[in-house]
Design brief:
Structural class: mainly alpha
Number of strands: 0
Strand content: under 5%
Distance between the termini: 27 Å
Order of helices and strands: HHHHHHH
Low-confidence stretches: 122-130
Shape: globular
Largest sheet: none
Number of helices: 7
Radius of gyration: 15 Å
């Protein structure tokens, strides 16, 4: 839905966040990458026009981080960036099917990784973004 319905203000936020992810990737700055990733996802979700999904994802994400789960624990920033690039490119092209496919692949892969982490790790992973999340309004 975001590919065809996203308003220009959300597109600008998405573009800026994606550029920030690219810069963080070049610098191998995981905390910066995660902050931009969060903003990217929120812009895409807001672009759908569904406020409930924005809230549901924010709560789910905060629960993941509270449990110490993060896909950066098991993938490189390069791998994560490529997945987001597919989503970004499809949305920019207003390709709803391509965006849906890219988001689906991203969600399924992320779920698989997080389930593996939650079942197999003795010590929880402390995501570098956790302190920032705690001071943001996303956990409330």
């Amino acid at each position: 839905r975001s590919a065809t319905h996203m308003a220009e203000p959300d597109r600008k936020v998405m573009r800026k966040a994606f550029a920030g992810m690219r810069k963080a990737l070049e610098q191998q700055d995981e905390p910066m990458f995660q902050r931009h990733d969060l903003t990217f996802h929120e812009a895409v979700l807001r672009g759908s026009g569904n406020v409930r999904i924005v809230e549901a994802v924010a709560k789910t994400r905060s629960q993941m981080h509270a449990r110490g789960l993060s896909t950066t624990a098991t993938r490189t920033l390069d791998d994560i960036f490529v997945v987001h690039e597919r989503i970004f490119d499809a949305i920019e092209a207003q390709d709803a099917r391509g965006a849906a496919r890219a988001v689906h692949d991203h969600l399924v892969d992320t779920l698989r990784l997080l389930v593996q982490q939650s079942e197999g790790e003795d010590a929880p992973y402390e995501a570098p973004i956790t302190p920032w999340l705690e001071t943001s309004n996303l956990l409330s």
